[in-house]
Design brief:
The chain is an alpha+beta fold and about 140 residues long. It has 4 helices and 5 strands. Strands 3-4-5 form a 3-stranded antiparallel beta sheet, with no helix packed on it. A two-stranded parallel ribbon has the order 1-2. The N and C termini lie far apart (about 40 Å).
């Protein structure tokens, strides 16, 4: 989004418009860790898809699938409805698992659509409304 990347040992900067820079960042972090069985949480594929819809499929096949084939796991999030239905279907076809989350008024529903070790299921999690925070007016005596 154009923000500066913080100077941290566990962070590598990448531009969501440039899938090659994201691939290089994944490789750099994997080299730093020096071991397999890493969980890569990719939040989200929506921006790269919107910038490079055709290239995101190549990125999934060459970068994310390669990373997973090396003994790692990938969790990639994508906003439904942000692109073409056939594109989302193509992405879902290469996925080992698909979880669909729906947020309603007072609950969050997680649907296990496809998973290598779980049967299809629906999990509903109630959400509590946030309590308003107390504020102090600079004009009050208290």
């Amino acid at each position: 989004m154009g923000a500066a990347t913080p100077e941290r040992s566990d962070t590598v900067g990448a531009n969501c418009e440039d899938l090659n820079s994201i691939s290089m960042a994944i490789v750099k972090l994997q080299e730093r860790l020096g071991r397999p069985d890493v969980l890569l949480a990719f939040d989200s594929l929506t921006s790269p898809y919107l910038f490079n819809e055709k290239e995101v499929f190549r990125f999934i096949r060459l970068s994310l699938a390669k990373f997973a084939s090396e003994g790692n796991s990938v969790l990639a999030l994508m906003d439904e409805g942000c692109g073409k239905e056939e594109d989302l279907g193509a992405m879902m076809s290469v996925a080992d698992g698909i979880l669909r989350m729906e947020i309603k008024e007072r609950s969050r529903t997680l649907n296990v659509v496809k998973h290598p070790k779980l049967e299809a299921a629906e999990i509903e999690v109630p959400t509590e409304p946030k309590q308003p925070q107390a504020t102090i007016s600079p004009f009050s005596n208290k």
